[in-house]
Amino acid sequence: MSEKAVQTALQAFLKGMPEFQDDSVTICDWSVLDGPVIYAPYAVIEPANEFEVRWETSEPQSTWNEVVNIYVPFFDWGESRAALRDLRDAIISRLNDPDAVLGLAVRSVRSGSPIGEVYNGYIPEDQRPDALPIFLTQALLVLCEEF
Asked: Which residue, 10, 13, 38, 20, is CA-closest to 87?
């Protein structure tokens, strides 16, 4: 199995969740964030920053620390932070199901970044202190083991 296959399995898993629309989960395609905010939440899966392949076992064993960036629309600070928390909890709960992601064993999920903001790209940096974000975001690191 390749990392692309691992990412595709994660993408199919997330697309199957009621929280996401079919086109709102991508692999390395941030242009989804240019779409209407009403279609959020979004998830963008990017290549693993950390991985390991071992040949010390009878079968090659690969683990991938896949990065899943989640985005929720910004309405206000409290509501949007709660929405991010709830989306994160839904993903973690579903990943905890041993049959959720076919062909993979999900060993752990952890934060890969603090909760951040995504601002309109057309707002100059000096005006951002007075601007409100479009999305709140956080990276999740999903440790997947192939079997």
From this structure: 20
CB-CB contact of 15 with 42 (8 Å): no
**For the chain, the helix, strand and coil percentages under 3-state DSSP, each to the nearest 5:** 35, 35, 30
* SS3 at position 47: strand
Distance of CA 25 to the CA centre of its chain: 8
What confidence tens digit (pLDDT) does each residue in 44-64 have? 999 998 887 777 767 767 888
Whole-model pTM: value is 0.86
Distance CA 19, CA 23 (A): 12
- C-alpha closest to that of 50 among 115, 114, 116, 145: 145
